[in-house]
Amino acid sequence: MNLVIDIGNSRVKLGVFKDNTLIYKETCNIIKLHAVVSNVQQKYPLIKFALVSSVVKKHDELLKMPPTIEKVFYLDSDTLVPFKNEYETPKTLGKDRIALVTNAFYTYENRNCLIIDAGTCITYDILTAEGKYKGGAISPGILMRFKALNNYTGKLPLVDHIAELTVKLTGNSTEKSLRSGVLNGVLFEIEGVINAYKEKYQDLTVILTGGDQHFLSKNLKNSIFATSNFLLEGLNHILAYNTNS
Question: Where in the cell is it found (predicted)?
Fold first, then answer.
C-alpha cells in the first residue's frame, strides 16, 4: 500500500492506494496533519511507501512519518518522473503540475493532453502523445479575481462565486454584473485556450480538475473529463515509478 500526502498552505489531502486504486481519502487542517497520518497508519498498517508533496518549507516539522513506513519520498525537481520534462525552469515547476502531468501520462497514454487545474490559480499544462511536457500557462483563479475586484476598488462587493452553478451573460445588478464578468471571463478564457490547443494538437484530450471543476464542467461547451482525485492519483504514480526504479 502507498500513502500520498499533498500539503498546501492551509489544507492537506491524503490518499491511501492499493496498487492504483484509491481506497481512502481525507482532507484536514495542516495543524492536525501529524495526528491524521498516525490514525491513517493505524487503520492501514500495510502502508509500505509514502510520498510527500509540500508547498510548506518546514513540512518536516509539521509531519513525522510513522517508523513502520519503509521509505518516504519528498517530491521536488530531482524526483524521477516518467515523462520528458522540457520546461526551461524545472526547479520552479509547481509540484501539483508535476503530479497532474504524470497522471495524464499514464491515464491517457500516447495521447495529446491538456490538463486544466481550476483552483486558487488556473493552470494549463500540455503533454504530447510522445510523452513530452511542453509547459503551459498560469492565470488567476475565480476567487482570486473576485477578491481583486473587491480589494482594488472602493465600492465593489466580494461575491460568493459558488452561490450558483449557472451564470447569465448580462447582469442587471452590481453583484450579477460581477458574476457575469468574472465567471464568463473564465469560461471564455478556458474555451479559447482549449480551441487554440485543438488547432495545434490533433485528437486533444482535455482534462479538468481542481476545486472549481464542478462549476466549470457544467458550463464549458467542450467535452472534458473531470475527476476530483486526479492529483492524488498522479502522486501515487510518481511514488510507484520511484519505488520501481
Answer: Cytoplasm
Q: Which residues pair with 29 in a beta bridge?
A: 11
76 known ligand binder = no
Q: Do 214 and 106 belong to one domain?
A: yes
Which sequence positions are flagged as catalytic? Answer: 96
Looking at residue 245, what DSSP letter applies? -
Long-range CB pairs of 173-181, under 8 A, 24+ apart, other chains included: 178/146, 178/149
Q: What is the pLDDT of residues 100-157, one digit of tens each?
A: 999 999 999 999 999 999 988 999 999 999 999 999 999 999 999 999 999 999 999 9
Contact indicator for 170, 163 with CB cutoff of 8 Å: no
Q: How confident is the model at residue 60 (pLDDT cuts 50, 70, 90)?
A: low
Say if CB 30 and CB 77 are below 8 A apart: no
Q: Chain centroid to CA 138: how far?
A: 12
For cell 519520498, what's the residue?
Answer: 73
Q: Has 192 been labeled as part of a binding site?
A: no
Domain of residue 139, CATH code: 3.30.420.40
Helix (H) or strand (E) holding 103: helix 95-107
Residue 95 is assigned to a ligand binding site = yes
